[in-house]
Amino acid sequence: METLPSSTLDIPKRGMPVTIITGFLGSGKTTLLNEILANKQDLKVAVLVNEFGDINIDAQLLISTEEDMVELSNGCICCTINEGLVDAVYRVLEREEQVDYMVIETTGVADPLPIILTFLGTELRDLTRLDSIVTLVDAETFTPEHFESEAALKQITYGDVVILNKTDLASSEKVEELERYIKTVKPSARILQTQQAKVPLPLILDVNLTPVQQYQTTEEHRYSPHLQTDGFVSVPFKSYSPFDLDKFEKFLTEEIPAEVFRAKGILWFNNSEMRHIFQLSGPRYDIQLEEWPSSPLNQIVFIGRHLDPNKIRQQLNNCLVLQPSKLAQAMGLKSF
Ligand SMILES: Nc1nc2c(ncn2[C@@H]2O[C@H](COP(=O)(O)OP(=O)(O)OP(=O)(O)O)[C@@H](O)[C@H]2O)c(=O)[nH]1
């Protein structure tokens, strides 16, 4: 990893520079955010993490400390909680401690335009400087059909920098083909190729690449009907009882609905002292072991189209060591 030239850290204090990280579900946005936080040196970065489910897993997996971070859960900042975005930026600006830079991670199903226009068309225009929209693309799973998601296409259309990530999982032909495709959608984009979103920060931060003038004439879009989440729904699940490892493995390999596109969770298993960071993205899943920073509990979110939340919750309840009815009995409570 290159070290950051000292000039890059000398960001002038005229309006706080803002970079928006976008990209489809599982493309590597949180990985990039962690990469930024690990290499920001003395730059004081505030991060704003948005998830459309009501459990914010990403926020719990960031290496940042709590003071640097504003979480926006249970709604998408490009639509339902757009006002929340303005308030969150104000909260950062009002802090006594100087913040040099703000990085925003959108949900994987966000249309970047309403977020861009919030920065350019509200009182935030004078307080911040929109620097760049950075779009992550999963080189393994992305196709020109862009998952039949209008949001996935818009993320590329508005990307000033497009990062073709996960090149370790795609052939060089596929990566070249994708690069050609991206150039047809967004000829002016700076295209980078990465693994684990490892990128020299001067290529993506304080680059002044957002064509602010061009957006000034498109303000009416802000009020146009939002894409909703392109049919994607998020099913959260939380439990204070651990999972039985064998049952959970069986669920993953045999029962999980095919419509689940993405899942992420912090898991507690009966036979382990460790917390398990679970990531499922398209065709693969991965589990990493870490120490628990606090009391164990299970938190997991499933994202996909046409999901049946009750069925998934029932399947997960069946994987618990102590199922809710038994837990209620054990606690002397009536179960409903
Ligand atoms: N093999 C491989 N895996 C990667 C790479 N970058 C990220 N991943 C993994 O892909 C999964 C998803 O990465 P995230 O950074 O959480 O993706 P995201 O865009 O934040 O996902 P959402 O939260 O759904 O929006 C995680 O398991 C990462 O460890 C890469 O370059 N190669």
Plain-language structure description:
- The chain is an alpha/beta fold.
- It folds into two domains: 11-223, P-loop containing nucleotide triphosphate hydrolases (Rossmann fold); 232-330, Hypothetical Protein Yjia, Chain: A,domain 2.
- Helix content is 29%, strand content 24%.
- The protein contains eleven helices and twelve strands.
- It has a seven-stranded parallel β-sheet, with helices on both faces.
- Residues 5-13 have low confidence and may be disordered.
- Bound molecules: guanosine-5'-triphosphate.
- Guanosine-5'-triphosphate is lined by residues 23, 25-31, 58, 108, 136, 165-166, 168-169, 195-197, 262, 279, 281, 286.
Topology:
Elements: E1 16-23, H1 29-39, E2 45-50, H2 57-61, E3 69-72, H3 82-93, E4 101-105, H4 112-121, H5 124-127, E5 128-138, H6 150-157, E6 161-165, H7 172-185, E7 190-193, H8 212-216, E8 232-239, H9 245-255, E9 260-267, E10 275-281, E11 284-290, E12 298-305, H10 309-319, H11 324-330
Parallel strand pairs: 1-4, 1-5, 2-3, 2-4, 5-6, 6-7
Antiparallel strand pairs: 8-12, 9-10, 9-12, 10-11
Bound molecules: guanosine-5'-triphosphate (GTP).
